Structures are given as C-alpha cells and as structure tokens.
C-alpha cells in the first residue's frame, strides 16, 4: 500500500511538471507571435536562414522581374570586368588587398550581404538600411535613425574586422554590392557639402586652411585661420597637385570609387547607380528577402547636385584642371559606363 501511494505521488509530480512545461511553451508561443505582429521585420531577420540567399536569387532568379534586372546587372558587371582587364594589361603594378583595404565593406550576416559604401552616393541612407537589416529588430524605420548615428563605426560591422578565413568565406558566398555616381557630380556634391556649408568646420580646419595657404595669393588672416571660404578652383588645384597624393590618400568623400571599393580585386555581384537609386536599391532588398517590410528611403531632389550645376562649376576652372581631373577619375568613368561630359575642355 505504501509503495502504491508513493507511485501515485510521483506520477502527480510528473503530471504537474508536464503541465507547467506545456503552459510555459504556450506563453512563449503567444509572446513570440505578439513580437512578430508588432515587428514583422524581426520575423524576417529571424527566419531568413534556410531559404535561398540573395546571391542565389541574383544568379538563378525565380521570378520574371528578377530575370530582367539580372540582365542589366550582368552588363554592368561585364563593363567593370572589361575595364579591369584593360587596366591590368596597361599597368605593371600588382597589388594584394590587406584587411585595412576592406574598411568600407559593411557586412550584414542576417541576409548575407556585403555593401561597399561610397560617400556622396546615398551612403547615409544605405548605412541606415544596413542597420535595420543587421539589427535583429532593434531598428525598423531607417529614417528614424539620426544621420550622425548612421556614421558611428561601432553601429555596423565591416569586413576588415574578420579573420582572413572569414573574410574569404564571405567574399565568396555573400552578395556584394556597391552604388556609384557620375564622378564629377559626386565631386561637386562633395565640395558643396564640405566647403560651402558653415557647420562643416572640421573640414574647413583640416583641409580648407591647407588649401587656402597653398593656392591663394594674398590670403587674409581670417581665411588662413578658418579655411571656411575655399573656392572650387582652389579645391580642384589641391586635388590635381601631385604633392597632395604624396602626402596621404585622398579623403573618402572625393576619393575614387576604384580606390575605395577595389572592384578589380573584389567581384561585385551588383553595381547600383545613383541615377536609378531607388529602383536598384529596392532590387537589392527584394533579393535579400526584405523587400516586403523595408523600402529604400526617398531622397530630397531639390538639393541634389545636377549635371547642369556641375557644368557651371567646371566652367570656372581652367582647361588644364579639367583635363587633370578627368585623368584622376577616368577609371570611374570607364568602369561604370559614364560618358565623358560634353562641357569638358580636354587638352
């Protein structure tokens, strides 16, 4: 009898434990779906693994719209490859990339993406989007992320932070993309942003004072001290001066895309263009499986540097400077299929 009572007590404990386990599981399931309903992008990030990744969808599209876009981006890849072959035949220099060359390549582990950011090509909005993609639900709306927060290095992981083996694995198996822009429009945009706006005092101090000191005759004491009124011809003279590149690499805001993203060493699967920004950007997001929950932010066209504006700036510099600038950015023109501007006076 005593043994029977003990067995009944033991069974009672087991039943209570099973009941508690089931109840706990039900609560977790309810809690999970509450989170998913509040933040559908969290579900996408959570469940992305196991499905076709962006790289597979790009090269073996399952939808007709992807097939049409794939042809366009194949042509862009071919243009890059052809330019790289010509450059390799022309130049005897051979260079091996080091991890420090990969600091512009942002990694999203959740969606297996690598994005090379190029300043003045919507990179602030792309960094915001990458924070949403890789944030595991921490962020849901890119435009709620302040622009200064998007540029905090610790908010995004870059490829140079990985081991050599992990770098090679990701370069092989993740979709790699970048966005480019007509080189001189990008250059004028950088000048307007960094040298004509009062709040960019750090650029005025670091670069403006040096430019004024070197290239302005009879500069005032105030101009030498603040560097806040750099003229475009002075800026371009600084860029084409051989001494500038002997001192240090060009600042990323006016460095060539070729030097920032190394497209002859890294095979980019997709090259988006600023001129078709939203279309190309949303194509990347759809390939990554995020297009239903996340769309690339629209940009303010009213402040954009246009071709007409760029032509006006170039009208004020000498034919010599124009020719030297074209030589500096020539690979970007050729590699990304931008025609030589009609307003140039090439010597």
Please outline what is shown here:
The chain is mainly alpha-helical and 347 residues long. It has helices at residues 2-38, 40-47, 54-59, 64-90, 123-134, 147-150, 164-173, 183-195, 201-215, 221-226, 232-240, 242-247, 257-261, 277-287, 307-315, 319-335; strands at 105-108, 113-116, 157-158, 175-180, 270-273.
What can you see in these coordinates?
It is a single chain. With 347 residues, the chain is mainly alpha-helical. The protein contains 16 helices and five strands. Strands 3-1-2-4-5 form a five-stranded mixed β-sheet, sandwiched between helices. The chain has helices at 2-38, 40-47, 54-59, 64-90, 123-134, 147-150, 164-173, 183-195, 201-215, 221-226, 232-240, 242-247, 257-261, 277-287, 307-315, 319-335, and strands at 105-108, 113-116, 157-158, 175-180, 270-273. The longest helix has 37 residues, at 2-38. 56% of the residues lie in helices and 6% in strands.
């Amino acid at each position: 009898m005593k043994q029977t009572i003990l067995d009944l007590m033991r069974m009672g404990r087991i039943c209570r434990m099973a009941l508690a386990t089931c109840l706990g599981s039900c609560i977790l399931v309810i809690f999970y779906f509450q989170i998913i309903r509040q933040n559908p992008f969290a579900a996408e990030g959570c469940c992305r693994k196991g499905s076709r990744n962006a790289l597979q969808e790009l090269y073996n599209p399952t939808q007709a719209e992807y097939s049409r876009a794939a042809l366009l981006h194949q042509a862009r890849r071919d243009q890059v490859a052809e330019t790289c072959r010509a450059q390799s035949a022309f130049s005897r220099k051979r260079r091996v990339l080091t991890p420090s060359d990969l600091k512009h390549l942002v990694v999203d582990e959740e969606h297996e993406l690598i994005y090379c950011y190029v300043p003045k090509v919507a990179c602030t909005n792309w960094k915001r989007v990458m924070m949403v993609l890789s944030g595991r639900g921490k962020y849901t709306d890119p435009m709620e992320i302040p622009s200064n927060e998007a540029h905090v290095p610790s908010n995004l992981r870059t490829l140079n932070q990985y081991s050599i083996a992990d770098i090679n694995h990701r370069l092989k198996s993740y979709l790699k993309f970048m966005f480019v822009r007509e080189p001189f429009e990008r250059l004028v945009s950088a000048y307007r942003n960094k040298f004509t706006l009062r709040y960019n005092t750090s650029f005025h101090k670091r670069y403006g004072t040096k430019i004024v000191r070197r290239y302005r005759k009879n500069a005032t004491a105030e101009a030498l001290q603040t560097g806040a009124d750099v003229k475009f011809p002075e800026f371009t003279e600084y860029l084409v001066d051989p001494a500038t590149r002997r001192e240090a690499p060009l600042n990323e805001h006016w460095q060539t895309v070729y030097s920032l993203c190394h497209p002859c060493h890294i095979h980019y699967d997709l090259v988006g263009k600023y001129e078709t920004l939203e279309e190309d950007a949303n194509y990347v997001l759809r390939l990554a499986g995020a297009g239903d929950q996340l769309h690339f932010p629209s940009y303010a066209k009213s402040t954009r540097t246009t071709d007409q504006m760029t032509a006006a700036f170039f009208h004020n510099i000498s034919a010599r400077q124009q020719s030297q600038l074209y030589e500096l950015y020539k690979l970007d023109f050729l590699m990304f299929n931008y025609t030589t501007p009609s307003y140039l006076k090439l010597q």
